[in-house]
From TrEMBL:
Keywords: Transferase. This is Glycosyl transferase family 1. It comes from Brunnivagina elsteri CCALA 953. Residues 176-347 form the Glycosyl transferase family domain. Transmembrane segments: none annotated. It holds the Pfam family Glycos_transf_1.
Length: 393
């Protein structure tokens, strides 16, 4: 089986790019020949080639550059015909506008990977759904439900992403004390942390707002924010810095910036927070759980499919700094509870391996190639394939 993947980004900016690399890395021995077309040039092109996979660049430009857009459709269709691919996979909805039309020209089946939860059903998501597709693969039940309600109705199989568990194995990392020393972090007191691109919906400001209440009881505590500026919200970094100053937390909140050695930063933390608003999934949550950390995450979207509240983590409403501070204090006030949660968290995280993710994704492709395409107006959600974090259905 030969599969062509259209990828819009060629630089790793978030979980979606890592998921593609995980699929390629773990799917090389699953009887699939992969071909990746990047719609821009960047470091990921060579990363994929280094894995022994054919990677090419078709610079599509912006959607409003119609002539380049049409030329890219023709070029991708020509490559699909020449390489005799069996399936075209479009990474993210925006790529399906281009890749789906290329598939239509060649008569090849196409699917696209919906990495968001389309709550607002934007015009572009609706446009993507209009373009023929054998299915729209989703990465959470929340996303599956939302996408399955957009007309024309497509099959919406669910495949949970995975985590490269070896990178987040405590046995393969420095101790917490060693990690703090190496990274120049405070070597005493509690360390609360959050990792993510600096965007408002990621909720870093909520974590900062929660710290004064924590510091009233634990004055030696610190907070570290690991993440770089986002191109679409460059002003948010300055907003956070101003907020830290306004609350007098300059000595207590550390803005670490973009970091590559994320496992070591998380290893240094006592409590890991994921404060996003309706996160589509939350790979970084599993990464922290794999390190046995006491985790707090939002009580909507993907995190609720990963965490069982009060068992392997705590869930709090987005934007509620009081609830977040209470959750932090619950861990700090009851170290035995925090320890039990950390043990259960690591056990849960072990179910989400990148190997299982790749096997389940390939199985979806195989099943879709073998079945008769569903009618566009059919809304038979019960027939949609489902793949859990464990291998197989």
């Amino acid at each position: 089986m030969k599969v062509l993947i259209n990828m819009p980004l060629a630089e790793q900016r978030g979980g979606g790019e890592m998921m593609l690399l995980d699929l390629i890395r773990q799917g090389r021995d699953l009887d699939v020949e992969w071909l990746v077309i990047f719609l821009e040039d960047g470091p990921m092109v060579e990363q994929v080639r280094a894995l022994g996979v054919d990677a090419r660049v078709v610079d599509s430009g912006r959607l409003r550059e119609i002539h380049r857009f049409i030329l890219s459709i023709i070029r991708i269709a020509a490559i699909a015909r020449r390489e005799k691919v069996d399936m075209i996979v479009n990474w993210m909805w925006i790529t399906h506008i281009l890749g789906g039309l290329s598939a239509f020209l060649t008569g090849k089946p196409a699917i696209w990977y919906q990495l968001e939860v389309p709550y607002d059903r934007s015009l572009l998501v609706r446009l993507s759904t209009l373009i023929p597709a054998r299915a729209v693969v989703t990465l959470s039940k929340d996303g599956q439900k939302a996408q399955s309600q957009i007309f024309p109705y497509r099959a919406t199989p669910l495949v949970y992403p995975g985590v490269e568990l070896n990178r987040f194995n405590p046995a393969n990392l420095p101790s917490q004390e060693e990690a703090r020393q190496k990274l120049g972090l405070p070597n005493t007191g509690i360390l609360v942390g959050i990792v993510g691109r600096l965007q408002r919906w990621k909720g870093m400001h909520v974590v900062v707002d929660a710290m004064p209440q924590v510091l009233q009881k634990y004055p030696d505590a610190h907070c570290v924010i690991v993440g770089g500026q986002h191109a679409f919200e460059p002003e948010y970094e300055d907003f956070l810095k101003d907020q830290i100053v306004a609350l007098g937390l300059q000595e207590k909140v550390i803005m670490a910036g973009l970091q590559q050695n994320v496992p070591e930063w998380v290893q240094a933390m006592d409590i890991f927070i994921h404060a996003s608003d309706r996160e589509p999934f939350g790979i970084v949550i599993i990464e922290a759980m794999a390190l046995g950390k006491a985790v707090i995450a939002g009580d909507a979207g993907g995190p609720t499919e990963i965490i069982t509240n009060n068992v392997n983590g705590l869930l709090t409403p987005y934007g509620d700094s009081d609830a977040l501070s209470h959750a932090i204090l619950r861990y700090l006030d009851d170290s035995e509870f925090a320890c039990h949660v950390g043990i259960a968290a690591r056990e849960r995280a072990l179910e989400f391996s990148t190997r299982n993710y790749a096997k389940n994704f390939v199985e979806i492709i195989n099943s879709l190639l073998q079945e008769v395409p569903r009618l566009a107006g059919s809304k038979d959600v019960a027939s949609i394939p489902y793949f859990s974090s464990k291998s197989g259905k």
